[in-house]
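Lab channel / #folding
Pinned by the channel admin:
"Please post every new chain as: sequence first, then the structure tokens as a reply. Keep commentary short and put observations after the output so the thread stays searchable."

First post following the new format, from NK:
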Amino acid sequence: GWPQGPQIEAEAAVVMDADTGAFLYSKNMDRKEYPASITKIMTALVALKYGSMDTTLTASANVRNLESGAQTCGLKEGDQMTLDQALHVLLINSANDAAIMIAEGIAGSVEAFADMMNQEALEIGATNSHFVNPHGLSDNDHYTTVYDMYLITNAAIQYDRFNEIIHMKEYQTVYYDKSGNAKDLSVNSTNYYLQGNADAPSGITVLGGKTGTTNAAGHCLVLVSRDTSGNPYISVIMRAESREDLYDEMSSLLSGISK
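Reply from TO:
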């Protein structure tokens, strides 16, 4: 544990033992917060549960219908990639256009997919959450809690594919436009631990996770890591003041994981 307890300025945080569900740390664990792109863990969970990885998805005109400045991988109407490719781009690069393509491909519409997200949240006990889209761009009616994000992430890590994808520092693939022309795509992880811009404390291996940042949500991070014995942990911080604070505070949380 921590000698004095970590100083976490962020609005809400939790560290959980993923195997036992034991709390190692919690702060405002049931406070409703805007999740920004950590929403995409739920998007991936629903896709992994109800989709088939080799299904071909086709981008509709809606993939361009995003607020300005939103992170995208540059999809255009008629572009095609498999669900597996789209999930890589969604989780590694946090592409909002890929989120829309996944939602429409699995449920027919963003609204129908959001219903699936909410149903899944209830099934796993994430009762303080409500989702209206698959990407997490700000909406007053789109919220979750650090504890619910633990539950959602713990459900997602039951899928090997999820663990493989969140561990990737970069990803290259080829997809096709509406005329069948090949398009190269190369994306990098948004996670500072994987990029090497932040260092986890000794004895802790970061397996991966998901970042999220909007003005309304502040800086958010969900992390899956393990200790030297291989025990898995899920740590979540929501609404940190800055990216620097986010990683400093996450490292301080991780330093308290010791057997």
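NK: The mean pLDDT is 96.
TO: also worth noting, The radius of gyration is 17 Å.
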